[in-house]
Amino acid sequence: MQQWRPEFEVYANKCKQLLPLLNNMDISLIVRGRLYSSCVRGSMLHGSETWPIGKENDVAVQQPEMRLVRWMCDVKLQDRVTSKRLRDM
Q1: In this model, does residue 74 exceed pLDDT 50?
Q2: What is the pLDDT of residue 11?
Q3: Are 45 and 61 spatial neighbours (Cβ–Cβ below 8 Å)?
Q4: Distance (Å, whole) CA 7 – CA 48
Q5: Is residue 54 scored above 60 in pLDDT?
Q6: In terms of residue numbers, what domain contains 12?
Q7: How many whole angstroms separate alpha carbon 26 and alpha carbon 59?
Q8: Does 34 fall in a domain?
Q9: How far apart are CA 22 and CA 10, in angstroms?
């Protein structure tokens, strides 16, 4: 699995500034989704074009992405909402 690299720290710090906006329930889910797609996903995938394609890299990206989507939608694991349903929201 891809190890955490120091250059990711810069992008992670930029994403931390967006966290209050992503969790703000006064902002519509559509706007928060667009903000996530444009800023956070780009930062998460920075440098991934050089990763070898494999199941482990796919899972390494999908797990934190779904965790963040659940957090943005205020859905807990105990609510038992599927990932497919969250993507359709």
Answers
A1: yes
A2: 59
A3: yes
A4: 12
A5: yes
A6: 6-88
A7: 31
A8: yes
A9: 19
